[in-house]
Amino acid sequence: MSTHRTLVMGVLNVTPDSFSDGGDFLDPVAAVARGQLLLDEGADIIDVGGESTRPGAVRPSPDEEAARVLPVIHSLAERGAVVSVDTMRAEVAEAAVRAGATIVNDVSGGLADPAMLATVASLDARYIAMHWRGHSDTMESRAVYTDLVGEVVAELAARVDAARAAGIGAERLIVDPGFGFAKDAGHNWELLRHLEAVSALGYPLLVAVSRKRFLGSLLSREGIPRPPQQRDAASAALTLWAAQHGAWAVRTHTVREHRDAIAVWNRLEVAPARSGGSVASGGEASGFPK
């Protein structure tokens, strides 16, 4: 058993069209205030993204994406926050790290921009490689598998190998199986049941399922999916599952209930039973990014 705590990565979408909160935090002042709220609720990392990856989303220009994220990253980093940038573009990743980000969260695993891996190798930042088969306009048609778990793990392993070959050290790598990306609801549930297969790659595991469509389908009534903002309890339940399976971090739209779920898991599984013991910290953080 590990005494380490699964981290909580708070989502901060600085976009007009994200599926859950598009437009809510497009203004930099509103975005920084939202980031501060996530920090106040216990977020370990703030993940700032300027491009929606929902199915069918239209990509912004690189300049537009950078203009959305850089002021927010700079302001939050100045406040002492650990910030990741959610981008598929090498030039945005480089500028974001200069602005204070210490993690590059690339949902394409280096496939969307041939310069990404070499660029990250030259930066002082960790790198999250996600399983990905194509951009938002084509990814649903790519959700075809003969052996889902085996194929996802093999394709993700190939991205890890490419990152290592580009010069990104193993200690800087994190993997994400890409829930909802080129995967239907059944695929997502099967992957969740086999998180240990992804962990077997030997790298810290990020689980990003917060408010995703397959939860809306699960919670539907009379064929109408539950709206994204009403999927938080189900998302927190999956955070508990991720913590049970040793996830390095969960990526979530809200924070407090996820920190609470992790604290409950740590108390039941790893904290010693003693009268009057405190679990306010929820356990020690594992692999906290520097």
Mean pLDDT: 90
Give the DSSP E fraction (strand runs of 2 or more residues): 5-15%
Q: Which sequence of strands runs across the widest sheet?
A: 7-6-5-4-3-2-9-8
Radius of gyration: 18 Å
Helix content: 25-40%
Per DSSP, the total helix count is: 10
**Structural class of the secondary elements?**
alpha/beta
Number of E-state strands: 10
Q: Could you give the topology of this structure?
A:
Elements: E1 4-5, E2 7-13, H1 28-40, E3 45-49, H2 62-78, E4 83-86, H3 90-99, E5 103-106, H4 116-121, E6 126-130, H5 148-166, E7 173-176, H6 185-193, H7 195-199, E8 206-207, H8 213-218, H9 232-244, E9 249-252, H10 256-269, E10 284-285
Parallel strand pairs: 1-10, 2-3, 2-9, 3-4, 4-5, 5-6, 6-7, 8-9
Helix pairs in contact: 1-2, 2-3, 9-10
Short description:
This protein is an alpha/beta fold and about 290 residues long. Helices cover about 40% and strands about 15% of the residues.
